[in-house]
Each structure stands twice: as structure tokens, then as C-alpha cells.
Design a protein that fits this description.
By secondary structure, the protein is an alpha/beta fold. The chain is built from 20 helices and 36 strands. Keywords: Glycoprotein, Hydrolase, Protease, Secreted, Serine protease, Signal.
Length: 769
């Protein structure tokens, strides 16, 4: 018998271990979204699902020769057959199987499955929605409109989903209420008319995972919060442990809710999310609210972009969140030209604590402390900057007052010092305006401005025995400086589609009160855990359903309007002034207040009552989006992945989409500083106001630029008549400032309609990394 010498054995061992990683790579499965050309499907198949199964059977591992085994393997690999969002399917494949699939008849392209995260009462009144407001009266509170949400599920027992006063379920509705763990199908009613869940992609990604609550039951709270924000029914006596007391309701309280759960405690993946959108389209939703997104993905590889294109083609309006990566430019996701991208703003409401000094003077300052409601006659001491922990830890049970700089990091350090010193409470004097993260603290924190701070310091210095009482859980309304853009709201422009200015609009997203699961802690980091039927959250996740609710009102009032027409009405009627009639501020720069640019707030704060009657609209159809994709140099296959069309006509490509905003890029590479650059835009507006109407243009000056509009007057003779105009922006090829902006407004003769569009000029050059 032949034997191997040690050298030969060593060489064989090296060969084996070198191939092991490759072998493991080939056998390891990943989830893929696969685009197929339906025009290639053989006529022998009864439908695309059977074709997809057959295709997968052909690429499956042939180690088992029996056809039944192959078919069974194919069936186990197939996750979803999509009907609307793409022509194709998702499947769990090895690398070798994917390579074989690429040579299959009809294969166009594939995208690897990606993880996704969501962007985490008073607000309806702040938007001008009252029983007598036009938007609620004309739309009857969104009666009969169906708002679908892809989120973490729903808590059906919440009073926000009561069917009291709700209309009948629309006869056109095809949705279902799926039963599951801790969720009976009988939980649905005239308010919550649909509940489905999707997790095949998640389970394929993690085969050993156990879904703790396998149903539409919300175990996180996010979905309950967003859906009740959009369309929650009226709930009297709502509050957050005494903060924000009153009647809670959604923006469209008579609209129906359909929940599609694709976010789980165990994770979330795009295969499940687009399956949820696909089902929502089939069920017949009118509005989709998507408080989620992917960063740094080209349009043709972004499953959210592909799925929403299909939704918009089916006349479904889609509202999406801009993301929570602000205040920096180019951080926005969902820069998708066919959806509404929503930034987050503040409300005209503050949560406060009231300090009553020993001399009887009372001062209020921001605080959202959930602990003890009241501290009575506690010694109060001023400790300058509160830098020295050695001194702070010796104070004992006192209220400590600190003079803090106007920097967020400084404030964070001082709050941390005082909270760890085992004192009663901390009062921090600062001009820093971005205070939201500091007032939501397990330690009692009160923030004061410099003027009120001086009052306290003077009292302490001039009193023999200074003391103060503090009462928490106070709510102040009608804050005049509202709204402002929040610091966390992601800014444009979008790298995935730079030629379309994003975000589109701003809606309330800061400290929003909405429904919450009663068995989910309002703050998982708080000790002890606290539970409530309502919670206060912040994020563009909260702004997105506000805009979705407004879209529901407009859909009811104008059922013939396209999604683009609804978006246009919301954008061109948005408010750019706060309650003091000064420009809306951006608080993303700490203590520096400056007007918010459209790259932060879009066209401005959404105004439902004005959007009801916009005068003119900028409409867009699917062909216009295809022309845009052609101009962005997408290949025919890449465009086909988005449009699901077997043919693409790029003979009339144009990056000049008929959008109600403008963004002009300067600072071309290698441009001499003395050169002038001219940017031109063409737009078509449709008259949806009075038949005989004349509009005159008004352009706010943009420093350093010459802006002109041709013609400067539009005369409409009939309703629905379309007229065109051209915007010309002329300026230096090299800009001194990163972003400058102004507005183009068409104003009718009586001043009833002001159709406003933001204009941004920028030296930014957004690119996908």
C-alpha cells in the first residue's frame, strides 16, 4: 500500500485549508431581490410564481437528481413572489447559485438584501386643524381614505383605534386582518381595517432565530405611535404622565389604518419591507407612510425606491422620512423623486418645570423629568461652571445651579457631572437652543436662559438661606418661535438624485405625543421601567405620518389629483415664517439662530388648509420620471429594474423634472473664478383655481446671482389649462458660500394664491460613496 511522505501531506493540508473559506462562501446563503423580464416568460407557465419556482429549481444544487426534491428545494429558497413593486422575486441563494441564476432566461439584475432601521395631539392644532378648519371640513377629516404603514406593528386595544364615529370600510378594500401570536383577526374594526406581517427574509437571514411575537402585535411601540399620529381617533384625557394633557387625535382622524409589520425586535430587511409594500398596493391603500430608509444607495439598487415607484404608478401617495443624521448637509435618505421626503420641525409647545424661589419669584424652564413631581423648599446653591466633581459630590441634597457655555458638548459635560454628584436637581443656565436631548433625563434637569439665570444667581447671592421649590410636568403652549427645524433632521441635497431638491416639506417631529403599547416601557433605559398608553417621541419618523395624514385629507378633497399634484399642493403652500412672522429658524447650530435653508426644511412647514386650494400645481407622470432616469445615465437594465417595463425610450431624456423646487449647482471643477455660469429650468403649471386668473411672478433676491423668469406673467383662461415658464439663474462659477437660497412665487391678481417654490444655489457636490 502506497504511503504519503510528510512533505506531500503538508502540501495537501495547505491546499485543503486554502480552499475551505472558498467552499464555505459558496455554500453560505444570502437573500437577494431578483429582477426578471416578464416578456421572456414561456407561455407554458400559468403565472410568474410558477416561472420563478422553475427558474430556482434549475439553479438549485443538483446533488439530488429527483425532480420532486429539486422543486422542494426551489420552494424553500423562494421568499416572495412580488406582484407590483418589481417584476421578480426574492430568494435565499448561495454565491454559486446566484452565478447560475445570472445566466437564466429573463434575468435582469439582483440586489443583496439589506438591513433597515426606522427613523426614530397638539400637532394637529398646530397645523391649523380644528373643527372649523377648511381642510377638515372639506375632507370630512379624511373620511374613507386608507393609510397604510410599514412599521413595527400596532397595539389594537389602544383607544386611538376605536371605531367610534368611523365610516364603513370601503367596498374596494381587499385587505385582511391576519391572526397570529397574541393577535386575533377579530382585533380589527372600522378604524384598523388591515393587519399583516412579513418576516420570511429575516428568518432566512437568521434561520435559528425565534420570532418572539409572530404577528402584527407591536412589541416596540414605533408603529403604534406613527399610525395613531397619522389617523388616530379622538382620545380624551391623553397625556404623558401629566405632560401634554388634552385630547389626542391623528391628522386624519376619520381615515382608516392598515398596518404592515416588517420591523421586528430581531431585525428588519428589505425583502420583507417591499413584500409589505407589494401587499399594501394589492390591498388598495391610498396613502403609504414609510418612516424608514436606506443610506447611500443608488435609485436602481434601493428597494424602497423600486417599490414606491410601483406604488405611485398605482396612484398611491407615498410619504417618507428624511432621516435623523442632521444637521450636516448631504445626510438625507429617501431622496427619491417620486415620493414626498419629510423633514422634522418643532411644535409650539414646551414641557417645563417651574422653580419658585424663597422670595416668591417663579421661573419656568424646559424639563421633561418623569420622577418626583415636586421638590419643596430645597436649599439651592450656585456652583459657577460645575466643573469640579470633588466639590459637587460634597453638596448633598441641594438644587445646584450651573453657568454653562453656549456649546452642546459643554452642556452635556455639566449635566453629566451634576447628575453623578447625588444632588437633588440641576439648573443649567445656557443660551444653547438645541436642548431636546438634555431635558429627557433620568436626573431632574431644568434649563434656563441667561436672563432668568441671572435672577436666580442674584437671589442666591443676596439670601442668607437660599432655597427653592420645583414643580415638574408643566406644559406651555403657543410658543411664538415655532416652528424651527430640528438639529437631527437630515439635510439635503440627496446623493441618489442630486438634481431634485430634497427634503420636500417639514412637519412636526419634535416631542410628539401619540399612542403607545401599554406593556412596552416608554423608555427602556429608565429605571424603574414606566408604562403609559401614550408616549412622547421625536424624529423624522414622527414627521412622516403627519405629512401622510395631510395627504389623506387632500386625497379625500381632490380624489382626481395625482400623487405629484398632492405633493405640489403641499409644497407650494408651505409656510416659511414662524409665529412671529420671522423666517423659520434652524436650531441645528446650537446658540446661533439663522434662517433655515430649503436643504433643511424643504419648501417649509406644511399647511393643510392652504394646500387644499393651491391655485396652481406642478404635475408629473411616470414618463417624466423615466426621462429623468435616462438623463441620470442609468442603463436600460437599471431603468427596467425601477419601471418594470421591458422597453425604455430615452430619446427625450431630461434632468429638468417638473418639480415645485429648484437646485442649481456651481463650482464646476477647474472653473476659473472670473467665469459666469448660467442654469436654466423649465416648468409647467396647471391651473386648479379659478377659470380666468392671472399670476405675476415675484422672486426674492439671491445675493450674488441674477435671477429672471420668462414670462413674468401667466394668464389662464380655463381651469386645468397648462402654461410654461423658464427660470434663469446666472452667477459666478465659483461660489463664496456653500448654500444660498431664495423663492420664486406666482401671485394671483387678488393675492388669494401665492404659489411658492424654493430656489437653492450651492457649491456642494453630492455623490454616492
Amino acid at each position: 500500500m502506497a504511503t504519503l511522505d510528510n512533505v506531500t501531506l503538508y502540501k495537501l493540508w495547505i491546499a485543503v485549508i486554502s480552499i475551505l473559506p472558498f467552499t464555505q462562501t459558496l455554500s453560505q446563503t444570502e437573500n437577494y431581490i431578483v429582477h426578471m423580464d416578464l416578456s421572456v416568460m414561456p407561455g407554458a407557465f400559468s403565472g410568474q410564481h410558477q416561472w420563478y419556482l422553475s427558474t430556482l429549481a434549475d439553479v438549485s444544487d443538483r446533488s439530488t437528481a429527483r425532480a420532486t426534491a429539486i422543486t422542494s428545494t426551489a420552494s424553500s429558497k423562494l421568499l416572495y413572489s412580488y406582484t407590483h413593486v418589481i417584476n421578480g422575486f426574492s430568494a435565499s441563494l448561495t454565491a454559486s447559485e446566484l452565478e447560475v441564476l445570472k445566466n437564466s432566461p429573463g434575468y435582469i439584475s439582483s440586489i443583496k438584501d439589506l438591513p433597515v432601521k426606522h427613523d426614530t395631539t397638539r400637532s394637529s392644532k398646530f397645523l391649523g386643524l380644528t373643527p372649523q378648519s377648511p381642510a377638515w371640513k372639506v375632507s370630512n377629516h379624511g373620511e374613507g381614505v386608507v393609510i397604510g404603514l410599514v412599521d413595527t406593528g400596532v397595539w389594537p386595544e389602544s383607544q386611538s383605534y376605536s371605531e367610534h364615529g368611523m365610516p364603513e370600510i370601503p367596498k374596494r378594500w381587499k385587505g385582511e386582518c391576519e391572526g397570529g401570536t397574541q393577535f386575533k383577526s377579530s382585533k380589527c374594526n372600522k378604524k384598523l381595517i388591515g393587519a399583516r406581517f412579513f418576516n420570511r427574509g429575516l428568518i432566512a437571514k437568521y434561520p435559528n432565530t425565534t420570532i418572539s411575537v409572530n404577528s402584527t402585535r407591536d412589541t416596540d411601540g414605533h408603529g403604534t405611535h406613527t399610525s395613531s399620529t397619522a389617523a388616530g381617533n379622538y382620545v380624551e384625557g391623553a397625556s404623558y404622565f401629566g405632560y401634554a394633557p388634552g385630547t389626542a387625535n391623528g391628522v386624519a382622524p376619520l381615515a382608516h389604518v392598515a398596518m404592515y409589520k416588517a420591523f421586528w425586535d430581531e431585525g428588519a430587511y428589505t425583502t420583507d419591507i417591499i413584500a409589505a409594500i407589494d401587499q399594501a398596493i394589492s390591498d388598495g391603500v391610498d396613502i403609504l407612510s414609510l418612516s424608514l430608509g436606506l443610506d447611500g444607495i443608488p435609485l436602481n439598487e434601493d428597494p424602497i425606491a423600486l417599490a414606491t415607484f410601483a406604488a405611485v404608478e398605482k396612484n398611491v401617495f407615498v410619504s417618507t422620512s428624511a432621516g435623523n443624521e442632521g444637521p450636516f448637509y448631504e445626510t438625507l435618505h429617501n431622496g427619491i423623486p417620486w415620493v414626498l421626503t419629510v423633514a422634522a420641525g418643532t411644535l409650539d409647545r414646551e414641557f417645563n418645570a417651574v422653580l419658585t424661589l424663597g422670595n416668591g419669584i417663579s421661573i419656568a424652564g424646559p424639563s421633561l423629568y418623569l420622577g418626583t413631581t415636586y421638590f419643596y423648599e430645597v436649599p439651592i446653591v450656585y456652583m459657577d461652571g460645575c466643573h469640579k466633581m470633588s466639590k459637587l459630590t460634597k453638596l448633598g441634597q441641594k438644587i445646584v445651579v450651573c453657568q454653562v457655555g453656549n456649546d452642546g458638548n459643554d452642556l452635556s459635560d455639566r449635566v453629566e457631572n451634576v447628575s453623578e454628584a447625588n444632588v437633588t436637581a440641576g439648573v443649567f443656565i445656557t443660551n444653547f437652543t438645541d436642548t431636546e436631548e438634555f431635558i429627557q433625563n433620568r436626573f431632574p434637569v431644568v434649563l434656563l436662559n441667561q436672563k432668568d439665570g441671572k435672577t436666580i444667581i442674584d437671589y442666591i447671592k443676596n439670601s442668607n438661606k437660599p432655597q427653592a421649590s420645583v414643580e415638574f410636568r408643566k406644559t406651555s403652549l403657543w410658543i411664538k418661535s415655532a416652528p424651527s427645524v430640528t438639529s437631527y433632521s437630515s439635510r439635503g441635497p440627496s446623493a441618489s438624485c442630486p438634481v431634485v431638491m430634497k427634503p420636500d416639506i417639514m412637519a412636526p417631529g419634535s416631542l410628539i405625543l401619540a399612542a403607545w403599547p401599554e406593556n412596552v416601557a416608554v423608555d427602556p433605559d429608565n429605571s424603574p421601567l414606566m408604562f403609559n398608553n401614550f408616549n412622547i417621541l421625536s424624529g423624522t419618523s414622527m414627521a412622516c405620518p403627519h405629512a401622510a395624514g395631510v395627504a389623506a385629507l387632500l386625497r379625500k378633497a381632490h380624489p382626481d389629483w395625482s400623487p405629484a399634484a398632492i405633493r405640489s399642493a403641499m409644497m407650494t403652500t408651505a409656510d416659511i415664517m414662524d409665529h412671529t412672522m420671522k423666517p423659520i429658524n434652524d436650531i441645528g447650530f446650537g446658540n446661533k439662530t439663522q434662517p433655515a435653508s430649503p436643504l433643511a426644511m424643504g419648501a417649509g412647514q406644511v399647511n393643510p388648509n392652504k394646500a387644499l386650494d393651491p391655485g396652481l400645481i406642478y404635475d408629473v407622470n411616470s414618463n417624466d420620471y423615466v426621462r429623468l432616469l435616462c438623463a441620470l445615465d442609468f442603463t436600460e437594465k437599471q431603468i427596467q429594474a425601477i419601471t418594470r417595463s421591458s422597453s425604455t425610450n430615452c430619446s427625450d431624456a431630461s434632468s429638468d423634472l417638473n418639480y415645485p423646487s429648484f437646485i442649481a449647482y456651481f463650482n464646476a471643477k477647474d472653473s476659473p473664478s472670473n467665469l459666469t455660469t448660467v442654469r436654466e429650468f423649465h416648468r409647467t403649471v396647471t391651473n386648479v383655481g379659478e377659470e380666468m386668473s392671472t399670476y405675476t411672478v415675484n422672486v426674492t433676491p439671491i445675493t450674488g446671482f441674477k435671477v429672471s423668469v420668462i414670462p413674468d406673467k401667466l394668464e389662464f383662461k380655463t381651469k386645468y389649462e397648462k402654461l410654461r415658464y423658464k427660470l434663469i439663474i446666472e452667477g459666478p462659477s465659483l461660489l463664496d458660500q456653500t448654500v444660498t437660497f431664495g423663492y420664486l412665487s406666482w401671485v394671483d391678481a387678488g393675492g388669494k394664491h401665492i404659489v411658492r417654490s424654493p430656489i437653492v444655489t450651492t457649491s456642494l457636490s453630492p455623490q454616492l460613496s
